[in-house]
């Protein structure tokens, strides 16, 4: 099969199109013929080697964290899916590889594709949807009447998180550039701050939850908009010691993570707010709940551009540019 592989870690190394063996199925896996693959910033970060400490992929490996396609084979232990099913997924860490014609995915990390979405729209959803769900529903337990600040409202996670937070009954604030203000409001944001004209920390106060996806400077400012005992959940780092425990990191990695997050944890303690790091996990049962929200029209996909398979490197570069409104997708088949 054809696949885009990482041959060497580093910013200056493009993905290479290569002939790779079709993955061998484990008992609990299904083989999916890839029709479309979503492109995410984590693809770039993994390629550049930023996650080598916690995700030690041996090169060469196939990149890609989002998929929609059709089941072509099932492992002998699989019970929920059959050949011909249209499915979508964010595959498990260390089992990624959606920039390819086929991928093997754990049954428990898979869900039937929403009936009202195209393959390209479905492929745009899993990673950002699960990130927002695990942050706002699982971690924050966001409730009706609470206030949540979702950074970068026009990004992939932002566009989904705004819609989900509104569905949960929260008041939603976000940041975006001048040209996207009206567009982000139409997604459901109540308060939209044009970051080119205003500083969000001077506008917002007494928030229950912040979903941080930006740099450390923005993270520190975000803590100031929270009420006492409010929650800051970051998906862009630094990782915290609890995460190191969850992944059973080696001793030296735990010490590195502890040191890198020390300043942030001290600031959170001083401001009497809760700080936690979220590294989203594959989860088919959560995807099923998300599917019902999509099929009922509560949440809509936001796809900026669809690139052909042969332009996978161009799609990745476009995501890295930070200009995308919503998600970027590769049409594989």
Automatic annotation (TrEMBL):
<protein>
    <submittedName>
        <fullName>NADP-dependent oxidoreductase</fullName>
    </submittedName>
</protein>
<dbReference type="Pfam" id="PF13602">
    <property type="entry name" value="ADH_zinc_N_2"/>
</dbReference>
<dbReference type="InterPro" id="IPR011032">
    <property type="entry name" value="GroES-like_sf"/>
</dbReference>
<dbReference type="InterPro" id="IPR020843">
    <property type="entry name" value="ER"/>
</dbReference>
<dbReference type="InterPro" id="IPR013154">
    <property type="entry name" value="ADH-like_N"/>
</dbReference>
<dbReference type="Pfam" id="PF08240">
    <property type="entry name" value="ADH_N"/>
</dbReference>
<dbReference type="InterPro" id="IPR050700">
    <property type="entry name" value="YIM1/Zinc_Alcohol_DH_Fams"/>
</dbReference>
<dbReference type="InterPro" id="IPR036291">
    <property type="entry name" value="NAD(P)-bd_dom_sf"/>
</dbReference>
<feature type="domain" description="Enoyl reductase (ER)">
    <location>
        <begin position="10"/>
        <end position="330"/>
    </location>
</feature>
<dbReference type="GO" id="GO:0016491">
    <property type="term" value="F:oxidoreductase activity"/>
</dbReference>
